[in-house]
Design goal:
CATH class: Alpha Beta
Number of strands: 7
Helix content: 40-55%
Order of helices and strands: EHEHEHEHHEHEHHE
Largest sheet: 7 strands, parallel
CATH architecture: 3-Layer(aba) Sandwich
Number of domains: 1
Distance between the termini: 41 Å
Length: 256
């Protein structure tokens, strides 16, 4: 146990199961003394989440649908009433319709485009709008992105466009919230075997290529990503904002 996040109230949105990057972050934050508030979407996710946190102290779970302003208002109202202040937010939420990932990119449906942008991008803006009111002591907001935002990964399709918009949103949000000592950054993770990744065609090929060609000759782990998130949530990163940090074993630097 460490104390980098001791007595810090950290909201983590997007824990689905033990393979989630958000869960890797939650575990790392807890090991550094954080008080955790974890959100879930439905009863199935709640059951999975309850099993994960069994035996943990100072962990609360709350329902939240980020496509509903009323839901978000209720979540942050409850957090304000119970905690008064939050010090960190981890936005680990993204979604695209499976048919828009399995088909070609130019066949992306209009509704699918709107859905991907609403859930994967606008939700960060909506969350930051409400979180800043509770970050009266300053704080850190983190989101998750992927290199498909700037390079073509066949099958990633609309999510690549959404991640590009998300990264731009990080910069604009960081600029506006900087005066309140609120930092906003993104972690660009290498490929990780999550439930969401299964929806991307040829994902196993991506894992093999990264393991073969990355500087460290391996794929990244939840522990790698959790450690980076702790750094971003803690005072160690007090001068860092508006950035995209590549945690991909060095693969993003490869030309071939």
């Amino acid at each position: 146990m460490g104390d980098l996040l001791k007595n810090k109230n950290i909201l983590i949105m997007g824990v689905r199961n033990k393979w989630s990057i958000a869960w890797g972050i939650a575990k790392a934050a807890k090991e550094q003394g954080a008080n955790l508030i974890l959100t879930y979407l439905g009863e199935r996710e709640k059951e999975s989440l309850d099993k994960l946190i069994a035996g943990m102290d100072n962990v609360e779970t709350c329902p939240c649908d980020v496509t509903s302003d009323e839901n978000l208002d209720e979540l942050f109202s409850n957090i304000k009433n119970k905690y008064g202040v939050i010090h960190g937010v981890v936005h680990a939420i993204a979604f695209a319709k499976s048919e828009d990932l399995q088909d070609t990119f130019v066949n992306t449906s209009r509704d699918g485009f709107h859905t991907a942008m609403d859930v994967s991008v606008y939700s960060l803006i909506a969350v930051a709008k409400r979180a800043k009111e509770l970050m009266t002591e300053g704080g850190s907001i983190i989101t998750l992105t992927y290199r498909g935002s700037e390079k073509v990964y066949p099958g990633y399709n609309i999510m690549g466009v959404a991640k590009a918009a998300l990264e731009a949103s990080v910069r604009y949000t960081a600029h506006e919230l900087g005066a309140q000592n609120i930092r906003v950054n993104a972690i660009s993770s290498g490929p990780v075997k999550t439930m969401s990744a299964k929806g991307v065609k040829n994902f196993s090929d991506i894992l093999e290529i990264v393991e073969k060609k990355s500087f460290l000759r391996r794929n990244v782990t939840l522990e790698d990503l959790g450690g980076t998130a702790v750094y971003l949530l803690s005072d160690l990163s007090s001068g860092l904002t508006g950035e995209v940090l590549y945690i991909d074993a060095g693969y993003n630097n490869m030309g071939l």
